[in-house]
Model the fold of this input.
Amino acid sequence: MDMLWLALAGFILLAYTLEAISGFGSIVIALSLGALLLPIDQLLPVLVPLNICMTGYLTWRHRYMIDRRLLLGMILPGMLLGTLIGYALLPWLDAALAKRLFGALVLWFAARELWRLRHAAAEPPRPLWLGRLLSLGAGISHGLFASGGPLLVFALAGSQLDKARLRATLVTVWFTLNSLLTLAFLLDGRLLPALPQVASYAPLLLIGIWLGERLHRRFNEQHFRIAIYGLLLATGVLLLAG
Done:
């Protein structure tokens, strides 16, 4: 078991290095790889508190670029409700089924992003009702797996926000929802036993950011994203295969 948690340390370092290079979601990568070795319900109380350290810093740093109308009017209402629903459903999910559902989500997301990169296809804006429905679904996914990003990015495809404002708004979403999940883990008793691991992994965030910033200029971003999505595609297949 110690070797499994040591392997998770490597996955966390990889995930935060990749996020620093490309801006890609660290929890999706760390949870996808970690779920090959450990149950999702054991990983979440470790990965979610780690994530709020980075997202809290980025939310404060870019607070003036947050689109509050989009955040409060469309994203957060549905995602907060969905996160509560997903959190309530997680104890009722069989561990093997949860792993396969997450694998299907990762596989869909990676395949979709690879297709978009290959075809450079622009997507039309979503109708408001569909955006809110997808935000609810993203919240349920976040409550189950702390990974609502794939569905939320799909919901916001075609939005008129520039990349900087969209990034600042999304980071605020993850900070808000992961803070809520961390509080839930505290109340249900799962956070305190995980705190020693959270503390031991925390320095990896700083190392990952430092490495990512040093490597950022040495890679072609599109090629790097193809490699990341290819890794997630293979991981999704392995998760589905059990």
About this structure: Residues 60 and 84 are 25 Å apart (CA to CA). The chain has a mean pLDDT of 84.
